[in-house]
Specification:
Number of strands: 8
Distance between the termini: 14 Å
Helix content: 40-55%
CATH architecture: Alpha-Beta Barrel
Number of helices: 12
Radius of gyration: 19 Å
Order of helices and strands: HEHEHEHEHEHEHEHHHEHH
Strand content: 5-15%
Mean pLDDT: 93
CATH superfamily: NADP-dependent oxidoreductase domain
Length: 315
């Protein structure tokens, strides 16, 4: 009941059990990135979010952790949803970036992708023969996200057009992050390949993106939330969260995650605590089981949460 819908479908893999719509977020992990990704995979996370942005991410260490996991067995490449990003110069550290800051937009995108394909290759010894277009072989990325709109709409669409050339052979789907509804609508209407993902802060300053998320539902776009806990201290103290804590017997953080997921939102979870990784996954499953057996109370709690963020209620 809790985990059905486009968000779960996007992140569901060939693994035999349902996978909650969590992505393990790798920002700010620095030199601890590889062991934390390995811990997340061991705990049961099957979706990893990173970026070609050395300022905040170690995409190379994400790739190393994934290769180690594939080599040791138990996890196959097709079991894991791998998502990375192209970050424009404004979001980069000019002393350490995967392309020439003075290059044209298209050249920046291609160089960034070449770096990502190399970092996220399946085997250490694999040489990238990559490039643009369907005829090329090599690393496949499940989702490539524009980390933010570029300086102008023209530049944004130029970058999007370059990314389209890699779909579906090298990149399965495209997305955009830190976007407004106006920009998203324009990318959707002008793009040959439609956005499959939006990744935004889910917090009061944007009024929880209610109109934007409505547009995503209408267009079949999966909304991914970040800052879900950090940006919502008020929601953590809200009555619907407290009611779910009491009913399902989970912590308030898991209760908030579950209520956000009930909006068909895929949630980024970047905990560095190995025990919490397992607790969060198990807690979501516990809420799912409780909701199946307590449908009337679950609908009441969901509607209370929806009213708290200005969302339409459900029957």
């Amino acid at each position: 009941m809790l985990l059905d819908g486009p968000a779960s479908t996007l992140l569901r893999t060939t693994a035999p059990s349902k996978s909650p719509p969590f992505l393990y977020g790798t920002a700010w992990k620095k030199d601890n990135t590889a062991p934390l990704v390995r811990s997340a995979l061991t705990a049961g996370f099957l979706a990893i979010d990173t970026a070609a942005q050395p300022r905040h991410y170690r995409e190379d260490l994400v790739g190393q952790a994934l290769r180690d996991a594939y080599r040791e067995g138990g996890i196959r490449r097709e079991d894991v949803f791998v998502q990375t990003k192209f970050t424009a110069p404004g979001g980069q550290d000019v002393r350490n970036m995967p392309y020439d800051k003075d290059a044209r937009v298209g050249e920046q995108v291609r160089a960034s992708l070449a770096s990502s394909f190399r970092n996220l290759r399946m085997r250490d010894e694999e040489e990238e023969r990559g490039g643009e277009g369907e005829e090329k072989e090599g690393t496949v990325i499940d989702c490539l996200v524009l980390h933010s709109p570029l300086r102008t709409m023209g530049e944004t669409m130029e970058a999007w057009g370059v990314l389209e050339g890699y779909v579906p052979r090298r990149i399965k789907r495209l997305g955009i992050s830190n976007t407004s509804l106006e920009v998203l609508r324009e990318v959707y209407e002008k793009g040959r390949i439609k956005p499959a993902v939006v990744q935004n802060r889910f917090y009061p300053a944007t009024k929880w993106d209610v109109p934007l998320r409505r547009y995503c539902r209408e267009k079949g776009i999966v909304y991914q939330s970040f800052w879900t806990l950090t940006g919502n201290p008020g929601l953590l103290r809200s009555a619907p969260v407290a009611e779910l804590v009491k009913g399902a017997g989970v912590g308030k953080e898991v209760a908030l995650y579950a209520l956000v997921m009930s909006l068909d939102v895929a949630v980024l979870n970047g905990t560095t605590n190995e025990a919490r990784m397992r607790e969060d996954l198990e807690g979501i499953r516990r809420v799912d089981e409780w909701a199946d057996g307590n449908e009337r109370e679950w609908v009441k709690i969901k509607n209370g949460f929806r009213r708290a963020i200005g969302e339409e209620t459900v029957e």
